[in-house]
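Progress report, Aim 2. The chain analyzed during this reporting quarter is listed below.
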Amino acid sequence: MSFFLHIKLSIVSFIQHFDRIKVIIIMSDKFHKLKVSEIEKSTPDCSIISFDIPQELRGQFAFKQGQYLTLQTEIDGEEVRRSYSLCSSPLDEEWKVGIKKIEDGKFSTFANDVLKVGDEIEVMPPNGKFYVEVDKTKQKNYVAFAAGSGITPIFSIIKTHLLAEPKATFKLFYINPRVVSIILKEELEALKNQFMSRFEVFYFLTKEHRSVPLLKGRLSEEKMETIFKTICDVNQIDEYFSCGPEAMILMIRDFLLKKNVAKGKNHFELFTTAGSNVEAKKKVAQTFKGKVADITILEGGKSMNFKIEQGSDNILDAALKNAADLPFACKGGVCCTCRAKLIEGNVEVLVNYGLEEEEIEQGYILTCQSIPTSEKVVVDFDA
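Predicted structure tokens for the chain:
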């Protein structure tokens, strides 16, 4: 049974599944200008950016541990938007994101080299489903895997559960090239000192020597076997969280499936995708070449219509090229900001890392990954 409470600024869906209630928060897709209140260097190439949230916006910007913010600004005359995970706990009443500078990264370079305290930037309210609800009454054991900047949502999750659940335990396996590249290291050590009996951190280094063989190099299936033979008992872990590169996340996912860990216990998020859908996109384009699709977009109580060649482009990009103002962020099939309901027609979905099985069954698609393959396609962003 489902109950829907519609609020002007957000939609909170309470979905009852047997005797468990799952809360999903889908925030407004409107951007707000926020002032940068602080910038700290966590590593030489990663800045922790804090935002000042006016009192009147704090309700809209309330967030769950593990959620992200979508930031937008104009760089060299181009509007650029990116999503970055909140690395603060909602219990701190602080809004911080970690932005690691990457090669040729337009937004990350701007954030690390140009952005300064006092600047204003457009920010969308928090979104994302990379969390489980806090339960103070249970004694839960958690395990997390993170690589590089994948620590940002993981840190928020760890801190929140340790603070809010008095009996919770957390083990973190964190992979980085070198000690100097460990993001939030001081914060992790402070948390470890605060919860000495409940929180353990294992630092893996890929480009520096470690005396313990397990902690040298990248995470592998062989190392996962060692971890679950010597450090963790797979039967004693209640929830798993993973965040990092696609190859690592999929390896962890497949490993846990082999160990008969229920899908619902394995929570993961990809910061970037490997672009493995290029060949699939070419195949779809070739199959439907020369056929036209009539696209109707329903959003914000309005409708727009345009035509494109079937198989040629995903719905989101095609709509943006036709001057549509639609919600989006990662464009990688991860964040679900561009989620819409397929009302009519057929699409080829290239990848999906964000939608739940129940959402797919209800007809929802990620428009950034959905290529029209029928003469008429209607999608509703308001559904």
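The longest strand covers residues 32-43. The helical segments are 106-113, 151-164, 185-194, 221-230, 246-258, 278-287, 315-321, 357-361. These observations will guide the mutagenesis work planned for the next reporting period.
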